[in-house]
Amino acid sequence: MADLFNLTDYHPAKYGAAFAEAIGDEPTMPLDAGRPDRAMRPVLDALAEKAAAELTVVDRDAFSCCLAAVWLLHGHLGEAHALCQDVPTPSGSYWHGVMHRREGDYGNAQYWFRRAGEHPACAAIAADWDPIAFVDEARHAVKQGGAQAEVCAERQRAEWRALFDHCWREAVA
Asked: Which domain of life is it from (predicted)?
């Protein structure tokens, strides 16, 4: 796999105070559904309103994708699903695929990645990034654990960061 999204250039503070607070210490998302971080619930519940008050949102669909991403980051798959499932863009389809991959619905995840098509964020993740192939890698890593799961978790982090950054740049002026 080619170099992953430059993790050293990623700083949540550049996304505004509300998103920086919601991203927090950026927990490592498990490859599976994991458990929702219930302590983050009040912050996540207030995120849309707080972020909209401090930012100039120019693309509501991309903004919904940013919200879905942060809910997903903290393990709230149902809330993430509700935010991205009806977004009629490649980014909405991509986040929808990530959510289904995390819940273990691998075939559905691949369907949504196919719907997303050649997403512009893929080149930022890695030169040879293939989200459909990554579904199979993640499925194997969930079963096997160990070093492969750690590698996949780091790839998933790079994917999250690159896709979030892409959606952010579309969402705000």
From this structure: Bacteria
